[in-house]
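Bench notes, afternoon.
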Amino acid sequence: MHRAMHMRRLSAAVTLPRWRYARFPAVSLSRTALLLPARPSPLLQLRYHRRNAHVNLGLTSRTFVSIVLPDASSKLQVDTPAPETSILSSDQRESVVTMLKARCNALRNDNAHYAAAPEALAAWRQDIEGIQKQLLPLEQFELRVEVLRAYESGVAIASKQRQFGLAAALVDQMRELGYSPTAKTHQYLVRNVALETLAVSQHTAREDLRELLKETPGDTWEREMLTMINREELPVQYKTDGEFALFHQRLIAGLEATLDAYERAIGSQEATEATQATGGKKKQERSTLPYNEALRVCADNGVAFPRMLKLLVTRQMTPDVETYEALLLGARWNEIPATISQLLHTDIVNQLSSSSSINSSEHVRLIWVNAMKAVMNSSNERFGSISASVSKTDVDQLRKVFLFVDKQLSSAFPKFQFATAEHHAEVYEMRIKAAAACGLMSPIKKALDEYVALAPLTGDGGKPALSKAPFLSALELFSWSPMEILLITHGDALARGEARDVSNSPRVAELRRTLMRMRRRMEKAQKAEDLVDTSTNTEHVKAAKEGEREPQQQVAGTDRNAALDAKRTRGLTRRLETARVLKANQLLIKEHVERADKMANHVLSKLLDAGYDIESDLEVSNKLMEQYKTCAVRYERRLTQGHKNVAPLILERVFKLVQTVSAHVKSGDLDVQDPETREKLRQFFEYAVSTAVRFWRREETEALVRKQQRVLGSKTLDPLEYDLLIFQRVTNADVSGAHALLQEMHNAGMTPSQAAIHRIAIALLYQLDKLPEGMEQLVNEEGGAAVPTPTEEGGEAGTGGELEGEVEEEEHEDAAAKAAADVALDSELTAVLNLSDRDTIEKELGLGGTLKFDDDDHSDADNAALQNPDTPQTVEDLTSFLQDWYNLHGVRPMGKTAVPVLARLIETKNFPEFRRLLQILEAMDGGLTPAAEVWLEKRLDQIGGFTLDDFRLK
């Protein structure tokens, strides 16, 4: 379900050529100049390219400041050879360059001289035509490179500002004026295909939804439609398979069309105008830039790896280093080692290893980073879903992939000296992140040691230049502990249950003593029965002859009691085994968490050795708290029975960390008034509160919120924290409290989120009665949970339900048998086997009193204050509720919020209120979403051939 969670943000800035130079402050320019090698003049650069055409293109440096991936394949395409000497004066050249820079700056919408697209295009045309008219042909040629760079920069600026029409118009204009777009310009156009495709409305169009429904069987249309509604507000990679496939179809079609246009533009089958003018027959070379960009676009947007290879083959590309970088970014699982092996069979590795340039360092960095990202994305796609199962086979396979890739690249680039400390740090950061995503502890320790040993030295006494980022990334291993716990098998629990600490645990020991007493009682009864067996049989025969029934009834009663004791003994034996397994699971979980603690402490000691003060470093505290939150999220729907054991362990660490940070604030080590510190503290508490909410711990959540208010000195929370508290209130069926929090946000001038409105609306429907039939998936599906309720599913190692089954079985025993049972024993068993007793579990884990703050002055009055008499009570009130929050804050209800309400009104035939809600939604800006409208059309047609027009105002 989670395809392409690796998608990079396509809003990343498009790199701009040197025409941005004019906007840089002098200090920035001087700093940038120090980082760049000295560059020859454009004419000398061109001559150098001609003389060295045989040199590997992937290793030649580009002349523009802002190009992230330098490559000679992006060199400007020049039609005719340059003259050996310049006929333009420096003043003439500088005048033209200044004019072109002004044209580029005028395209920027944050510039005081910004010109709208029509005016800008007219000004460009006027200036370029002026150059052509005023200068001689040879003079024009000398400025041709500058004009091409200017257009390249203009297209980059327009692309960054999402002005795709302007970018295309600039390309058309330069062609009309006789200039061929550079390969870099075509690269921007390729990237614009993805940007423009994603820039379309986040909602799938109505026409597309109707077409997709045609492929759905008639009896399943509503389920498919509700799935589309549930995911309507999510990014495209989380939508349904049909919608995602449609996006890919359009994306690839756009890429193919753009590449076709590029190939036509360069005249791949004809000699260029320049060679025609000199009588030559040489064909113009294709640059790999547009093709590699197309591969990167595919990788960024979740296009399947085989489809990327198809594009590579059908275009008859010769792979270069950037091709392999793009392929690595899109590879998954076994595709990753296959791509690495193919790369190592080329001469690229030798070429990169033999060079110490920043260009080579950049490519080695990207090979490492993209390979590690591929491993992380493979992990996220398989295990990232909070409801996805975790298989030991899959985990082992992923670990093999990582170990292979890490070993091969380490052998290919042994002790590679990166050109910058940033490259060195990023490579090791990603290696550590990938190892953490696989749950591998040893590779993380090894990578940290290598990072410190191979770090470049600074000018300050020759100390190694160490970044904090790789060490913080190593802490991410802590959040893998839930995966390890999910891999605990029943056999593991049985084996662990034989240990002495399990046998001596209070619960198991008490059950064992109870079972022994029961068996002794049964043995004593059996011996007594054996002693009187002969005489009793004689009396039975005599009584039977005389027709007496009382001895027979006594014998039958004795037999029933014996059978009942035997049944209770068998049940108690099973309960003892179950208690052993549960206790073993509890200890195994605790051991996994403690193992993660040891790794975290190891990383912190390494960070301390690197010279960082970790005591009051909020970055370290935030990273740890983030891992606790990740643990809670990963458990949310996977191991709800395990919450009883996991939640106290994680929350103990949360409370200890909060106490530590609070102490630093109190001592003055952390200044709450400093904006940066305050923002970090806000993020810290947000993680803490979210952890408690995800573990369904209301008391701890409220304690953490009160602690935050005391530390920050403010009663006002952030919108995201209000969202979390509303979520928790709703899951506890406290709709009034959730509505009061919403009102509190309004009073503080905050705008609630669509999710908060959705959760309260769905909870109100539950409160009124229940959701309409079929609407449950709008609540329970991943990404759209509004009122999730933790369920006791399975328990650890498949044993959680067995004990409950035994209790249920005993509750349904025959009433007479219950009366004959030992009441004292029943009471004893109930006390021993109360698995939901939170205090007992926390006591067994040694956590008594740790999940509270000493300075917490909580009173019941706080909860009483969160009651709102204005909470909607009827479905009509719910309609007004949706309208009011749109009028107050412009919060439009999502499709998955409106559809259950509409369905309820249709189901109850409340058509006047249905008409009112429809009119309210259509009066909102985007109130009736495309998916909701298509669902309404189908549902109304189904119930009686109605249309939406039947309910609209005439």
